[in-house]
Design a protein that fits this description.
heterodimer; A: mainly beta; four-stranded antiparallel beta sheet; B: mainly beta; six-stranded mixed beta sheet; about 0% helix; globular
């Protein structure tokens, strides 16, 4: 079946603008995760949902970052008042349950000018 | 806090040869999972292999196998009969067991395959 999809694949924005990144998980996957990956580094955890409930947001760097998954399927990661340091690849992953292997989407490359 | 260390920033291997990528981790947990993910130039993240800590037998997936040394907290990846398509960044990752959710990744090892 179809894998995890993310949109947009590339986003260029100006400092101070808000951005919304979308993740569409594999159908039927209960758990959804957001990670951020700087160039040349491994992904770092941001937040995690089980169904529509945000179970862990300990990795969100500050209150400009928020995420939702209102119907337990598609998720949106929103960054308000973007800053240049927010530039990175933002990855979404999903798994059938919390204990299963996570499958990653292609990522959204965000560039803040 | 859990940490994952990949001490080899870059490795090279001749096509058809065997290469081993190193990974160590630090945890006080007894129940956890370990993973190797591959990131080719396309920057996709592709699962290569998974190991449950409670299993003594090393996981194997075709040309990919692991050497899991629980006491030493070591989890190396062996790639046999290397192919040009194996060239990628490889990430080792750790996840706590039953109630774990997030993956903790190492910094990655770039693998170059020479023809």
């Amino acid at each position: 079946g179809a894998g995890v999809s993310q949109s947009p694949r590339y986003k260029v924005t100006k400092r101070g603008q808000d951005v919304a990144l979308r993740c569409d998980p594999i159908s039927g996957h209960v758990s959804l995760y957001w990670y951020r990956q700087a160039l040349g580094q491994g992904p770092e955890f941001l937040t995690y949902f089980n169904y529509e409930a945000q179970q862990d947001k300990s990795g969100l760097p500050n209150d400009r970052f928020s995420a939702e998954r209102p119907e337990g399927s598609i998720s949106t990661l929103t960054i308000q008042r973007t800053e240049q340091r927010d530039s990175a690849m933002y990855r979404c992953a999903s798994s059938p349950t919390v204990t299963d292997t996570q499958y990653f989407g292609p990522g959204t490359r965000l560039t803040v000018l | 806090a859990q940490t994952v260390t990949q001490s080899q920033p870059e490795m090279s291997v001749q096509e058809a040869e065997t290469v081993t990528l190193s990974c160590t981790y630090d945890t006080s947990e007894s129940d956890y999972y370990l993973f190797w993910y591959k990131q080719p130039p396309s920057r996709q993240m592709i699962l290569v292999i998974r190991q449950e800590a409670y299993k003594q037998q090393n996981a194997t997936e075709n040309r990919f196998s692991v050497n899991f040394q629980k006491a030493a907290k070591s989890f190396s990846l062996k790639i046999s009969d290397s192919q040009l398509g194996d060239a990628a960044m490889y990430f080792c990752a750790y996840r706590i067991g039953e109630y774990g959710n997030k993956l903790v990744f190492g910094a990655g090892t770039i693998l170059r395959v020479k023809s």
